[in-house]
Amino acid sequence: MVSSTEERGEFALGWKVLFASVLGVACGASPLPFNVIGFTVEPLIAEFGWTRTQILMPVTIFGIIASLLAPFFGSLADKYGVRKVALYSLFAFGISFAMVALTPTAQVTSTLYIYYALWVLIGLVGIGSTPVSWSRAINLWFYKRRGLALGILLMGTSLAAITVPKLAVWGIENYGWRSMFAIVAILPLAVALPLGYFLFREPRADERPQAIAGVSGNLTGVTLRTAMRDYRFWLIWISIAIVAGSFGGAFINLPTMLADRGLEAQTAASVMGVLGIGIFTGRIITGMLLDRFWAGFVAFPLLCLPAISCYILLGHDIAFPMAALAGFLLGFAAGAESDLIAYLTGRYFGMAHYGKIYGMLYMPFGFFSALSPIIYANVRDTTGSYDPVLSVALFAFFIGGALLMLLGRYPGSLPEAEAAPAGKLAMEAG
């Protein structure tokens, strides 16, 4: 049992870093593209006549590029310290996101490809502003209440889900969809970046929790090569792939699903806000449960909740209360999944090579979250309904959750890493 003094100690030391990290996640490349692109469908159809699949393709391009680069950015954070990686990437993401406003107005063949190219740029520079970076620092500051701290960290995506859809709709209605991208880009550039510059850093060796270091004070953990020989790595990888592939398309296409069922854009934005509340709740509750119970017992029931959302969304007309319930359950499970990736990485594989391993486990999350929206959209374009893909997703959520029941106990000990050069330690602390 963790004493209240011990718990206060971790939060007393790390709260400034945690606060900056929450805003970094909220304003980073993980939530912003996914929270705005669904509201560009109707304006882009009206202006260019593109299909839903073409319009949602950019988030797939972004997600696939970002997921493939996640291990690379993770290794940079391991090698050079997470502060530089997170802050430089946050700046580059904000600039590149604002540049989508430069999409040409004329309907020419090249317009679509220019639009796609801008999203390629977002994918190339943005992944360092996601939890791949921020969660490394939190895992280094917290151990006894790591689950809760990660839950609070990842509340950033729920803050985005609560606020950004309303901002996006307001921007589109008042200034057009192009200006909306520039407006939303203010969040990483003017909010998260200044706070991160002054507050965000990794702990010095004497500030780290003792449990994540060996007798010599170095971080403990297995290498990526060793982790990839472990069956638990692949159970987690496959579970993430299945759940992300089911969730990503439902999340991005939810505004158009609700429009198909007779709800207006502002009402759909309100449902997305409820989804954000679900993510917020899922983060905190999952984090608290992970600090008290084995992850498999926590994960399975929580990852089954979106199956209820899929059932609710099947059919035709839907009233706001049921739409809100579907959004809440979908968001709650999304909060649980993101918590689990960071938590399981640290508990099963340690912190010595956390960035690389987390990057590899983030890869299926980013890849299938990105691929899923165009699958959903293509089903809608082809059949005129989302029901076929929702029916498949309903069962996929159960399977993804059940796989985590096979992980087994956390390892009792992990090998100690070699000492880092003094210069590197100085960079990480600074």
CATH topology category name? Growth Hormone, Chain: A
Instruction: Note the main sheet.
Output: none
Q: In CATH terms, what is the architecture?
A: Up-down Bundle
- End-to-end separation in angstroms reads 33 Å
Tell me, what's the shape?
Answer: globular
Helicity range of the residues?
A: over 70%
Beta-strand percentage?
under 5%
How many E-type strands? 0
Radius of gyration, in angstroms, nearest whole number: 21 Å
Mean pLDDT: 85
SSE order? HHHHHHHHHHHHHHHHHHH
Query: According to CATH, what is the class?
Result: Mainly Alpha
- Structural domain tally: 1
Estimated structural class: mainly alpha
CATH homologous superfamily annotation: MFS general substrate transporter like domains
Description of the structure:
Mean pLDDT is 85; it is low at 1-8 and 420-430. The protein is built from 19 helices and no strands. The protein is globular and about 65 Å long. 76% of the residues lie in helices and 0% in strands. The chain has 430 residues and is mainly α. The protein has one domain: MFS general substrate transporter like domains (Growth Hormone, Chain: A), CATH 1.20.1250.
